[in-house]
Design a protein that fits this description.
Number of helices: 11
Strand content: under 5%
Largest sheet: none
Low-confidence stretches: none
Mean pLDDT: 89
Distance between the termini: 36 Å
Helix content: over 70%
Shape: globular
Radius of gyration: 20 Å
Number of strands: 0
């Protein structure tokens, strides 16, 4: 069930990225981030208002569990910066590599109070395929832009740290209220960044590209609430490494579908890398099932 939720989260995430991308074209990337957090905060507040038996939100310890929203803003900033140095495909691949490495470290050591889940030996086959799939997605841009590669890798690290902090908070507040806190914490940071960047560039933070009004581009924040809420549910239940790859697979193939519908899809490294990573996940899940069955089967003496 939780594996399916992770895949669904990847699907929603892909749609959200497409919606938010259109908002970023309408405004600047930083103004769009502020709008996304404002819409997400309002949507989560409305959902929480209809929720019965709400738990206390701001009184829990350790206090670092409230930093998920702030760390998430840095993920966006890192990705925006990386796009100026290397290709989008390489940003995605190196971000995924950063997520994979960070997830494995947290899984194996039980950092941040997460359940300790050492990687079993049979999982190294799937891990090898997944890492190979990531490198298939890379192109030559990473060899000439070490800074962009490092920033992309850092975006993957910050993404895992953000979802881990959010999940720890959600254990105390519930998945929905945890998503609300994520957006409320990130909102003032994105607003400050939007005005700071606008002031530095001599433009208005509210400057728009014009054109016809498209109300659907403002709903990315609502989708973000659902994404964070699903992560709050799945992070404590399945290994971070598996979660990272399942979300990625759902995201990649939904992205390919959306591009195909829009008539902008071209077969390339993202497809082949995604297929190899999906194969790695499938191998791991099959081996996991085989091992589980063999443990339940009584051995004759």
């Amino acid at each position: 069930m939780y594996q399916l939720l992770a895949l669904i989260n990847g699907i929603i995430l892909s749609v959200m990225i497409s919606v938010n991308g259109n908002l970023s074209v309408q405004y600047s990337a930083f103004t769009a981030a502020a709008i996304i957090h404002a819409v997400g905060s309002l949507f989560a507040l409305l959902l929480c208002a209809s929720q019965k038996n709400r738990k206390p939100v701001w009184t829990h310890r350790p206090k670092w569990i409230y930093l998920g929203g702030a760390i998430g803003v840095f993920t966006t900033v890192f990705q925006n910066l990386a796009f100026t140095y290397i290709s989008i495909t390489s940003v995605i691949a190196l971000g995924l590599l950063g997520q994979t490495v960070t997830s494995l470290v947290i899984d194996s050591s039980g950092l941040f109070g997460m359940e300790k889940r050492p990687l079993p030996r049979y999982a190294f086959i799937g891990l090898g395929l997944s890492v190979f799939g990531i490198f298939v997605m890379l192109d030559t841009s990473v060899t000439t832009a070490a800074l962009g590669a490092a920033i992309s890798f850092a975006s993957g690290i910050s993404m895992v740290l953000s979802r881990t902090a959010n999940a720890r908070l959600a254990e105390k507040t519930g998945a929905l209220q945890g998503s609300l806190v994520n957006h409320l914490v990130g909102l003032p940071i994105t607003v400050i960044l939007a005005f700071a960047v606008a002031a530095a560039s001599g433009t208005s933070a509210a400057a728009s590209a014009g054109g016809s009004f498209r109300p659907w581009i403002y709903f990315g924040g609502a989708l973000g609430v659902v994404v964070v809420m699903l992560l709050n549910i799945t992070v404590p239940k399945i290994p971070g490494f598996q979660l990272t790859l399942l979300v990625f697979v759902g995201q990649v193939f939904t992205g390919i579908l959306l591009d195909t519908v829009a008539g902008s899809y071209q077969t390339g490294a993202t497809l082949w890398g995604g297929m190899i990573i999906a194969a790695g996940i499938a191998v791991n899940m099959i081996l996991e099932r085989v091992v589980a069955v063999s443990k339940k089967t009584p051995h004759s003496s």
